[in-house]
Amino acid sequence: xxxxxxxxxxxxxxxxxxxxxxxxxxxxxxxxxxxxxxxxxxxxxxxxxxxxxxxxxxxxxxxxxxxxxxxxxxxxxxxxxxxxxxxxxxxxxxxxxxxxxxxxxxxxxxxxxxxxxxxxxxxxxxxxxxxxxxxxxxxxxxxxxxxxxxxxxxxxxxxxxxxxxxxxxxxxxxxxxxxxxxxxxxxxxxxxxxxxxxxxxxxxxxxxxxxxxxxxxxxxx
Amino acid sequence: xxxxxxxxxxxxxxxxxxxxxxxxxxxxxxxxxxxxxxxxxxxxxxxxxxxxxxxxxxxxxxxxxxxxxxxxxxxxxxxxxxxxxxxxxxxxxxxxxxxxxxxxxxxxxxxxxxxxxxxxxxxxxxxxxxxxxxxxxxxxxxxxxxxxxxxxxxxxxxxxxxxxxxxxxxxxxxxxxxxxxxxxxxxxxxxxxxxxxxxxxxxxxxxxxxxxxxxxx
Lengths: 221, 217
Known about the structure:
CATH class of chain A: Mainly Alpha
CATH superfamily of chain B: MetI-like
Shape of chain B: flat
Number of domains of chain A: 1
Distance between the termini of chain A: 54 Å
Oligomer: heterodimer
Helix content of chain A: over 70%
Shape of chain A: flat
Distance between the termini of chain B: 53 Å
């Protein structure tokens, strides 16, 4: 270990600050998921449309979101939009980038879960006298929710991990941003980032365990 | 808007960056797959409670942001006085990161091979090694390959983060050009197009393989 003295106390003293950062991280992740799910549903409907003018842009969105790095998407929101005179703050750019990414991945999740439900069930519902909307709401949607829930929560974990990229566009209030700020002031890189890593680990574990508990409560047969 | 000062030389500079991206990806995927194969086989062989330390360790790589893993590894190698270059550090971190995901793929694929098939192989007098290489491997490969392709593409996209350690891969080169030419939108579009061209054809191939193999089942 050479002659390096670890200064853990310094890192622990900054813990309240970092936990505040963790709250901002969660805030961005949850917001990006809400926006992402909304857009993903619209994209899924649009992609299944028979009209090419509607399905093509949706397909383009999904393919770009899935085939370029998340960091690139955040750069696009932060630096790229500047060319059009739209200057987003790091927070908004990060949120826009992650939401764009989420929407692309979740669209495929939703489409997949929609496909997993046999069309015979909808037809059975229709033959019982339900309207198409009612059949979708009462028969298809509950099952879709069951299939899509855990992959969606997986995407939530991805969103949390992606928020760490904000620091590259100057974000300084989320967990990574706060940590980088402390690091720049003290040069205790290892201690601070190790603590941040532990916080990220605990957050993702808590989200995953919570999701499992909810899934068990709602979806067990 | 349609005029640009991006010269052919600058484009070559970006393509060189894309080469670095591919090189890091190749190292990470080769290293990660070898380790993932080993860990995956080990995990299916030993009892569940014995696998807990390995599972926990690999889970850490999937639950901590890659950017923080890179920063931590770089700080650690400096503290320990290993004197590794950022390139080597990134390759090691990305390999471990890949291996964590690869282990899950391998384990899932091995478990997808029905136990009765393996017992039948063993009862025909095959050794464990023969069973593994001649029965399990070909069957598990069909299950694993689509997700493995997805993982490879994921690692290629995630490798953009190594720019934080100062490595000139594709995204970092585009940053440099943006600083010099002040045309962020155009340069980022070119960057995105390069990433897209690297990733999209392989993603399509993976999707087609998955579909074709499912039909045969």
